[in-house]
Design goal:
heterodimer, A: alpha+beta, 2 domains, 10-stranded mixed β-sheet, 12 strands, elongated, B: alpha/beta, 4-stranded antiparallel β-sheet, globular, disordered N terminus, disordered C terminus, binds adenosine-5'-triphosphate, binds magnesium ion
């Protein structure tokens, strides 16, 4: 009890210096948390993807498409339950900076494959009825204030022209990781228009999405599909949706790695700052430590005082930093919601924040603690005079 | 209350201190500086000894050796039956916490702790409960006349009051021996007199053996025995110095 009081009173010796260190730790714990949450957000699409869905695309590259005739042939492969097709449309709403993902899909099969897109029955029916209808995610609706019945015109980038659509439904995500920022419209609308404007590009699907009977059969089914199109004009590459999403993330792997390194560096830097604070505090008190040792206190007790103090500083900074992470992530997530549909602080991140603060506290205290242990009493007392 | 403070009679229970052929030198750069040369010296239980001598003569060094916070190069120091020169670091620390009370020139109180907490601190090394610790610390502070200053921090106390707090801290564990390195060196005459009265009282009524380094002849006068060091050698003292003083009453 007295020792605890002693440690707490020691904290009050250099209020400004300790406050600055606490703020420094809080800021680094906060940035560590935000950076990690960014990386998590990057991977959220992968997390949300299903293991019972396969994606088939042109084996050369994502930008090459596949003949629409493949759909029937894929359906014939063993293990395949349902097939849908789609195109990355890449349309812009008024301006480039209003980016959100938009796809032309075969609506009926697509919605069947994605039960996590929750759409009221009447809206679904209205969407399926209207050839120029579209559905949008709840976050996207909130972003532009779109309501059911509103007209939306997309400017085509891959498929030139102005594409007039009408909002027929607003879906909600069933899971935390579900993307609520997409716009989906009918592939048939895209294809019929292409038949008129640029027939050479018509009757092509960017990708097929395949529902399979069981996740265990994913590998064999994927191989069987690709085998069917071997040596044909457009060979295919089939992989699980997870692997498909991963290939997007992998493209930005270097950026993710950089973010990870920066988040670690932030912790290393604050470790040096905290270690310096503790070294200064301990150096000023060597005379006191010598007196305590003369009274019979061992190095272990001094180590407890010093480590207790540095852990207390780290703990206060950590609590502050973790507490700030949630509102900061909410605000940051709001600002970048068009890029990261899911921006949420995970329990693991909070755990890692705590662990890194603990390490900072220990590392900062360990050197002065060892030094205090080895001071010669008579010499240190002599220096006071 | 089982207060260790104020229960002992005369120095019958205290051990004698026997310093035998102690040498000590410091290495500074290339050269070795001898500080104590073959010093032998006996201190009887309940004695009040003043160590005098010019600056640099080795007084503090000898006191530190007796108190077990420095190590001899040669020779032995027997305290009772214990040869403290053979103890390892942790055994020595344990011995100090039980046997020695320290009174420093600059008090060496912990500035962030109150007087009471400072006095309570050494009791953390005893098996006493928190309540017992508090009671003993309170009693020790009352004994040095600071019952009304217990919650003051050192910076809120005068030099004399700080030194009295330090004395309370030195006696709270009821050690047999008090060592004091220029305990009045930083004090005005009145405060110094009060501190010396207090120490003489502790020696007389509680039978504490006191070894005190001092430059102040007035302080030395209060001791029973004055020994002088010069260039690391103990000068034979005049037996006339060895006198018993009338003991002043304990501080209120
Ligand atoms: N750690 C050390 N390293 C080197 N020399 C030392 C050390 N400690 C003491 N000395 C030297 O030993 C000699 C005796 O020192 P000591 O402190 O015992 O003297 P003192 O009699 O107490 O003097 P003062 O009255 O000034 O306090 C001095 O010359 C001092 O410089
Ligand atoms: Mg000295």
């Amino acid at each position: 009890m007295l020792t605890l009081r002693f440690i707490l009173k020691n904290l009050s010796r250099h209020k400004l210096r300790n406050c600055l260190t606490v703020v420094g730790i809080a800021v680094s714990v906060l940035s560590f948390g935000l950076l990690r949450t960014t990386v998590d957000a990057w991977h959220a699409g992968v997390e949300a993807s299903s293991a019972t869905r396969l994606v088939t695309r042109n084996s050369i590259s994502l930008i090459f498409s596949l003949p629409v005739s493949y759909e029937e042939r894929i359906r014939g492969v063993e293990g395949v339950e349902i097939v849908s097709r789609g195109n990355w449309f890449g349309g812009e709403y008024i301006d480039e900076k209003n980016f959100f993902p938009n796809f032309a899909v075969d609506a009926r099969t697509y919605l069947e494959l994605y039960p996590e897109l929750l759409l009221p029955d009447d809206q679904k029916a209205a969407f399926l009825r209207d050839r120029k209808g579209c559905i949008i995610g709840a976050k996207l609706a909130a972003r532009f204030g779109w309501k059911i019945g509103d007209p939306v015109t997309l400017k085509g980038t891959i498929f030139p022209g102005n594409w007039g659509l009408t909002v027929r439904g607003v879906y909600a995500g069933r899971d935390k990781g579900t993307d609520e920022t997409m716009l989906l419209f009918h592939w048939d609308y895209l294809n019929e228009t292409l038949r008129k404007t640029s027939p050479r590009r018509a009757d092509q699907a960017g990708f097929y999405i395949i529902g399979i009977t069981s996740a265990d059969a994913a590998a064999s089914t994927a191989l069987a599909i690709d085998a069917r199109f071997q040596n044909s004009l457009a060979e295919t590459l089939t992989e699980t949706e997870k692997a498909f999403q991963m290939s997007f993330v992998a493209m930005s792997g270097a950026i993710v790695a950089a973010i990870r390194i920066v988040s670690l560096l932030v912790i290393v830097i604050i470790m040096a700052v905290a270690a310096n604070t503790m070294a200064m505090s301990a150096r000023e008190r060597m005379g006191e430590f010598a007196a305590l040792k003369a009274l019979g206190f061992g190095g272990g007790y001094l180590a407890r005082l010093i480590l207790g103090e540095s852990l207390a500083i780290a703990a206060i900074g950590c609590a502050l930093g973790c507490g700030l992470t949630f509102p900061a992530a909410a605000a940051f997530g709001q600002a970048v919601s068009q890029y990261f549909p899911v921006f949420q602080v995970s329990a693991l991140t909070v755990g890692l924040q705590g662990a890194s603060a603990l390490v900072v506290g220990l590392v900062a205290g360990i050197v002065p603690a060892l030094r205090a242990q080895s001071i010669g009493i008579a010499e240190a007392l002599r220096r006071i005079g | 209350m089982s207060a260790p403070v104020g229960q002992q009679g005369s120095g019958s229970g205290s051990p004698a201190i026997d310093i035998r052929a102690v040498s000590k030198s410091y290495v500074r750069g290339q050269q070795t500086v001898p500080v104590l040369k073959d010093v032998s010296f006996h201190i009887s239980p309940g004695e009040f000894v003043a160590l005098m001598g010019p600056s640099g003569s080795g007084k503090s060094t000898l006191l530190n050796l007796i108190a077990g916070i420095d190590h001899v190069d040669a020779g032995t120091i027997l305290v009772g039956d214990t040869d403290i020169t053979t103890l390892n670091e942790s055994a020595l620390a344990r011995w100090r916490s039980r046997s020695i009370g320290f009174i420093f020139q600059f008090y060496n109180l912990i500035p962030v702790l109150t007087a009471l907490e400072n006095v309570e601190l050494p009791l953390l090394l005893t098996p006493l409960s928190a309540r017992e610790r508090r009671e003993h610390a309170t009693a020790a502070l009352a004994l040095v006349g600071l019952a009304d200053r217990m919650d003051h921090r050192p910076s809120e106390l005068s030099g004399g009051q700080q030194q009295r707090t330090a004395i309370a801290r030195a006696i709270v564990t009821d050690p047999d021996i008090l060592v004091a390195d220029e305990p009045t060196g930083d004090l005005d005459r009145v405060s110094a007199g009060e501190i010396l009265d207090l120490m003489a009282g502790l020696n007389k009524s509680l039978g504490k053996t006191i070894v005190m380094v001092t430059h102040d002849p007035r302080a030395a006068e209060r001791a029973h025995l004055v020994r002088s060091l010069e260039k690391g050698l103990l000068i034979d003292s005049d037996p006339a110095d060895q006198k018993d003083h009338a003991d002043p009453a304990l501080h209120p």
